[in-house]
Specification:
Beta-Lactamase; seven-stranded mixed β-sheet; about 35% helix
Length: about 350
């Protein structure tokens, strides 16, 4: 009971300080991540092996404790009373228990509240196709997808199915029916859930993360057969995302996958959350829309030319990451140093800002 109370104090501190993450591990203070920086809670004690085991075990259900012991890591969600939800990963390091907890805001924010490009509203109007939100871990992919899905929820009478590991945002049903399936709780395996999802009469699918060739293949098939499919990947740009999808298949299948992707892809949003001058973080986004030129490049496997098409089609709503960063610098939202740090081509960024 003592560790449960201690855990709840830490979770409350995390929520009050608007931290994105809480880290629990042996040999250091409980640590928050605030605006991208790690902040140790030095008023607390340094965590001992006994403390770590007590705090991590307090997070877990009776079924999850043996699963962690057997698998050495486990993903799950944790609801802290009615105050906050966390996406958690418990694991072992140097033989001791540890955990990383990501705070999930209680309310789904809108595209405007997240300071995302207005073109993202177009994705909420789709009747079929494939949309990907990509970027490093912890840079807002889940929040962006949630904003688009919730806009669909408030504007259309659709059946939205999510397959997540674990469930992050909880949606309140409005005009749509929303079925949220968590791996380990609502389905035994990610792959099994994906195999059966098309028999559940979906209009919109959200696949938490495309983690293997099977999830990519299922997503492409679903988009081909008249559904809207949203998912995420840990890639750094639109062009890299297209390469990753095609290269994840055996060589003899890559031509067919490229054709499927060219036919179904609607857009890719690559985002970074950049520390603001005034505190907090702002998204910088690359937006690629699959116009005929992009589809042709994917089909012909000329992926290296995609960046040029994005650069020259701003009037269609496409945005390069550097233009997004340059705009934030001009508006004094972020510093030049931070923009260069997150840019994939800092010299081009400097030229843009000199114009």
């Amino acid at each position: 009971m003592e560790y449960k109370r201690k855990l709840h104090d830490l979770l409350l501190t995390c929520a009050k300080q608007e931290a994105s993450d809480l880290h629990i591990g042996v040999g250091y203070f409980p640590t928050l991540r605030i605006d991208g920086a790690l902040v140790p809670l030095t008023q607390e004690s340094i965590i001992t092996p006994h403390d770590a085991e007590g705090l991590v075990t307090a997070l877990l259900t009776d079924e999850q404790i043996p699963a962690l012991a057997q698998n050495k890591e486990i993903d799950f969600s944790y609801a802290f009373e009615d105050k906050a939800r966390f996406r958690c990963n418990a694991y072992f390091q140097r033989g001791f228990m540890a955990a990383a907890l990501r705070l999930i805001p209680a309310r789904v924010k809108t595209i405007e509240e997240l300071n995302l490009p207005p073109i993202l509203h177009d994705f909420a109007q789709l009747s079929q196709g494939f949309v990907l939100v990509v970027g490093p871990a912890g840079h807002g992919k889940s929040s962006t997808l949630a904003a688009i899905l919730d806009e669909i929820n408030h504007s259309r009478t659709d059946h939205i199915i999510t397959v997540e590991d674990p469930i992050e945002y909880l949606f309140v049903q409005d005009k749509s029916i929303i079925s949220q399936r968590e791996v380990g709780t609502d389905t035994l395996e990610f792959s099994r859930a994906l195999r059966s999802v098309l028999r559940q009469d979906p209009d919109v699918l959200m696949i938490g993360e495309m983690r293997d060739t099977q999830s990519i293949a299922t997503s492409l098939t679903a988009a081909e057969t008249g559904h809207v499919v949203f998912s995420t990947l840990h890639t750094n740009s639109a062009a890299q995302t297209v390469d990753r999808i095609i290269d994840s298949f055996p060589a003899e299948q890559q031509g067919q996958v490229a054709s499927q992707l060219a036919a179904t892809l609607v857009g890719i949003v690559s985002e970074r959350l950049i520390p603001r001058v005034e505190g907090g973080r702002m998204p910088a986004c690359e937006v690629m829309l699959a116009n005929p030129a992009i589809r042709n490049l994917i089909r012909e496997r000329k992926i290296y030319q995609i960046d040029l098409v994005i650069e020259t089609n701003a009037q269609e709503g496409m945005i390069t990451l550097n233009r997004s960063l340059a705009d934030l610098v001009r508006r004094r939202e972020i510093s030049m140093e931070k923009a260069e740090l997150y840019s994939l081509n800092p010299s081009e960024l400097r030229i843009l800002l000199e114009k």
